TrEMBL record:
One of its GO terms (molecular function) is S-adenosylmethionine-dependent methyltransferase activity. One of its GO terms (biological process) is methylation. CDD domains: AdoMet_MTases. Transmembrane segments: none annotated. InterPro entries: Cation-dep_OMT, SAM-dependent_MTases_sf, SAM_O-MeTrfase. PROSITE patterns: SAM_OMT_I. The keyword Signal does not apply. Coiled coil: none annotated. It comes from Mesorhizobium neociceri. This is O-methyltransferase. Keywords: Methyltransferase, S-adenosyl-L-methionine, Transferase. The lineage of its organism: Bacteria, Pseudomonadati, Pseudomonadota, Alphaproteobacteria, Hyphomicrobiales.
C-alpha cells in the first residue's frame, strides 16, 4: 500500500465518523499560512487524543511540544469545564500562532501555554509543584525523549497516561546502528518505558495521512 491509500483511508475515517469542523480546519490552514512545519497530528490522531483524555477522565493534561496548537485544541475539547492543558513550546512564533488558534477554538481558558526550552519549563513546573498530571503527551524534539519521560514520571501519579509520539520512524526504529538523532530518540523512548518498573506500556504502529509511524503509550502503576 502507498501513502496515497493511507491518506484516502484517513479521509474516509474523518468523513464517516466526524462532523465537519471549520474551526479545526482553520487551525491547520493558519499553521500552514504562518509557515509552521506540517507535522501536526492528523485529524484521526487528534480525535484519539481527545478520546483518551475523556477515557482517562483527565482534568490536568501536560503537552510537551505545542507547535500551532492543533493537538492542544483536540485535548482541551476532551476536558471538563474545569480542566486545563499546560502546553510547552520553544518557538515564540509558533506560540503566537497557537494562542490565536486557541482563541479561535474558544479554549484559551483551558490552556496554559509556556514559552521556552521544554526542560526549563518542566523544571519550573516541578518547582511549582504543578503536578500531578492525568495525561502527558510528548511530541517535541525526539533526542530529548528520555529526559521528557523522566520529567513525565516526576509529574505523574498512579494512573497517569503517558503518550510518546513518532516512535516508529518509517520502521527505522529497528536500526540499532543508525545515527539519526530522531531514531535514537525513538529507541531511547522504548528503552525508558521498557526499563521503568512503574510503567506498563505498549506501542502501536500507525499509517495514514502522516505516513508510517506510531506512538508508545504507557500507564503509571
Amino acid at each position: 500500500m502507498s501513502n496515497k491509500t493511507w491518506t484516502a483511508v484517513d479521509d474516509y475515517i474523518v468523513s464517516s465518523l466526524f462532523e465537519a469542523d471549520p474551526v479545526l480546519d482553520a487551525v491547520i490552514a493558519t499553521n500552514r499560512k504562518q509557515g509552521l512545519p506540517a507535522i501536526d497530528v492528523s485529524a484521526a490522531q487528534g480525535k484519539l487524543l481527545s478520546l483518551l483524555v475523556r477515557i482517562r477522565g483527565a482534568k490536568r493534561v501536560l503537552e510537551i511540544g505545542t507547535l500551532g496548537g492543533y493537538s492542544t485544541v483536540w485535548m482541551a475539547r476532551g476536558l471538563p469545564a474545569d480542566g486545563k492543558v499546560v502546553t510547552l513550546e520553544l518557538d515564540p512564533h509558533h506560540a503566537k500562532v497557537a494562542r490565536s488558534n486557541f482563541e479561535r477554538a474558544g479554549v484559551s481558558d483551558k490552556v496554559d501555554l509556556r514559552i521556552g526550552p521544554a526542560l526549563q519549563s518542566l523544571a519550573a513546573l516541578g518547582s511549582e509543584n504543578a503536578g500531578p498530571f492525568d495525561l502527558i503527551f510528548i511530541d517535541a524534539d525526539k533526542p530529548n525523549n528520555p529526559n521528557y519521560l523522566s520529567w513525565a514520571m516526576r509529574l505523574s501519579q498512579p494512573g497517569t497516561v503517558i503518550i510518546c509520539d513518532n516512535v516508529i520512524r518509517d520502521g527505522a526504529v529497528l536500526d540499532e546502528d543508525g545515527r539519526d538523532p530522531n531514531v535514537e530518540g525513538a529507541r531511547a523512548a522504548f528503552s525508558f518505558i521498557g526499563g521503568e518498573k512503574r510503567l506498563d506500556g505498549t506501542a502501536i504502529q500507525t499509517v495514514g495521512a502522516k505516513g508510517y509511524d506510531g506512538f508508545a503509550i504507557a500507564i503509571v502503576e
